[in-house]
Amino acid sequence: MNINETQLNIGDKIQIIRTRRDMSFIYPSQILDVLDENTYIISGPITMSTIVPVFISENIEIIYVVKDKGRYKFDAIVLKKQDDNIYKLVIKKTGNVKRLQQRSFYRFNLKIPVKKFFTIKIGEKEKVIEENCETKDLSGSGMKLLSNYDHDINDIVECLFEIDKKKVHIKGKIVRKDKIDNFSFKFAFGIYFTDIRKEDREDIVKYIFQQERIMIEKGLI
After folding, report:
1. How far is CA 15 from CA 69, 84, 165, in A?
2. Between these two residues, 6 and 12, which has the higher pLDDT value?
C-alpha cells in the first residue's frame, strides 16, 4: 500500500496509547495540525473532564483507522506540550506505520440478530432445528454466537444475518463452547466460517471497519 494512503490529515480521529507498569491506557484524540510527514499537533488526552498529564520525551503509540483499509499504528515521542486554551501535544513519529491486525481476523464486538439452522438425525430421518440467536463479536473469518441450543464441538451450523442491508449466508464449525450467565442465552459458541462467499466476507470486513471508525469518531473507543 502507498504510504500516502495511511498518512494522517487534519481532523482525523486517533487514539493515544500510554503504557504504565505493564498496563495500557487508551485516550481518544484528534489531529489538529500536520507540521510535516512525521510531526503532528494533536489534542492532549482528557478523561472525565480532567487533563491527563503527558511528559516531554514520553514514548506513546498512535492508532487510527483508514476507511475501508484497516487499523494502523506507529510509535511516537512527545516533543512539546501546549496549553493555550486547548491542551495540545506536539508529537513526532519514531517508527514505521504498521497494520495493527489482519483484516480478516480482526474481531469487533457487534450485536446482530442471526437465524441459525442445525440439522440433526432422528433414526433415518433428518430434522432441521431453527433458532434465533445473536452475535457477540464478528470478523471476516468467524464469530462468537449466543445461543440456547447445546451444541457439541465440531457441529456444523448455517447462519443467516444482515449487515448494512445486505443478507449474508454462511456455514461454520463450532470450535469453542462456553456457558454464560445471560438472561437471554445459555451458551457462547466460537464459530469458524467453513463456507462463505468472497463477497460476503469482504462486506463483513468493510462493515466492521465502518462501525469502528464511527465509534472512534464519537470517542467511544
Report:
1. 17, 22, 30
2. 12
